[in-house]
Amino acid sequence: MSDESAGSRKPKRKRLDPQTREEEIVEGASLYFAEVGFDGSMRDLAARLGISHALLFRYFPTKDALIDRVYDRIFLSRWDPTWDGLLDDGTLPLAERLKRFYSGYLRAIDRPEWVRTFIYGGLAGININQRYLSLIKRKVIAPVAVELGKLGGTGHGGAVPSEEALELSWGLHGEVFYLAIRRWVYGVKVTTDVEGFVALTVAKFLEGAPAVLKMRSRGR
Amino acid sequence: MSDESAGSRKPKRKRLDPQTREEEIVEGASLYFAEVGFDGSMRDLAARLGISHALLFRYFPTKDALIDRVYDRIFLSRWDPTWDGLLDDGTLPLAERLKRFYSGYLRAIDRPEWVRTFIYGGLAGININQRYLSLIKRKVIAPVAVELGKLGGTGHGGAVPSEEALELSWGLHGEVFYLAIRRWVYGVKVTTDVEGFVALTVAKFLEGAPAVLKMRSRGR
DNA sequence: CGCGATATTGACCACTTGGTCATTATAAGA
DNA sequence: TCTTATAATGACCAAGTGGTCAATATCGCG
Lengths: 220, 220
Fold this sequence. Notes:
2 copies of one chain form a homodimer. By secondary structure, chain A is mainly alpha-helical. Chain A folds into 2 domains: 18-75, Arc Repressor Mutant, subunit A; 78-217, Tetracycline Repressor, domain 2 (Orthogonal Bundle), CATH 1.10.357. In chain A, 70% of the residues lie in helices and 0% in strands. Chain A has 10 helices and no strands. Chain A has helices at residues 18-36, 42-49, 53-59, 63-76, 83-86, 94-109, 112-124, 127-152, 163-184, 194-217. In chain A, helix 1 (18-36) crosses helix 2 and helix 1 (18-36) packs across helix 7. Chain A starts with 17 loop residues before the first helix and ends with a helix. Chain A binds chain B through residues 37, 39, 116, 119-120, 122-125, 129-130, 133, 164, 167-168, 170-171, 173-175, 177-179, 181-182, 185-188, 191, 197, 200-201, 203-209, 211-212, 215-216, and chain B through 37, 39, 116, 119-120, 122-125, 129-130, 133, 164, 167-168, 170-171, 173-175, 177-179, 181-182, 185-188, 191, 197, 200-201, 203-209, 211-212, 215-216. Chain A binds a DNA duplex through residues 11-18, 21, 41-43, 51-55, 57-58, 61-63.
């Protein structure tokens, strides 16, 4: 409308410096593959970026190389280091620790690129998923199970959580993650009140899990 | 080794009557697509079945038609009608009802075709998933939330469950389903003791959820 | 055994895919 | 303004895709 009129040439090719272009490609690819899965085509992606598909191969030698970069971008940079000490921090009540961790965690992963790419990868058997899961087990599931052992008073005071405590801990994790699945995999409308949801779920967990553990240890 | 020697001709083509062949195809396609996703090729599937890919198109006009049939086979026939009355059955204690339902339900869906196909479909935005989810909400989540309302004693005695009760009920469902996801999507080794797992999870739910609901209704 | 209905196949088509490369246009520096 | 290094492209390739169809081999029936 404004100054399209006279001789203002608009170049048919946008020539960016390689850094910016590469960043643009990785960003675009993250969104694209999250949407359509890794069977999406390079041509499609290029069209969406407004460039030729040949250019993609100038920046990434193969499609797999691009996908690797997408994985890096989405996963490797999204673990907040402050979470590491959080769950073991004895100065905070467990409820508070859990609420803080899962609020932050859910905020970090509750987005389409993360959830969909993770699930796509799981289905495809990409090993990054299994590595990620064992990280979760080590950093989250096990510590929580240990705390649970203390609360449950089953004599499992040590650093080795019981099978049941682990399963209960996985349960909490699953509940939280399932919210993100419903939202981004099933495309269902779910609450946006992350804080409220986590508070509710954690409260239920702390109310129920230790009690069950007690029941199990003393008679049935 | 035995009678391959002399004139015992083995035909290069196996000629089956259409019913059997069709059944074989649908069965094979269910497993195949569950494994590799719906981007798997008709030629690949045919090879796995030991037939030519042209034959597939004699039985199903298009690939989508085959996929539809696969969906039917996996989902439509797996809802056990006896579950329908189960959750509302006032003559059984709620714990018993929940254990029975979720044991049966988990046994029905905890298999690769079901879980993987369902998730593949969700990612692809197939509407069968959303229909299925609303069925779950109507037949499982809502009834359980209503029972929860009674136990929580929040005055929500009626048939309209509160938002919080619904969320807690979804939580239970998510925990259970997450077991199947870990097993069949992430490929992680998890317990095979379905009964035990359900008993533990239901116990935790009934110990925790009503308590939380009470806390929420009387002062915070 | 021989025949015929038809289940099954191989060859084929148009199109899409990941990937290559010589050619072209752009923006910065002189 | 002209040059030039190089970002970006279009045309191309071989392999794979869903889908078609005339030819062929199998099995049941007489």
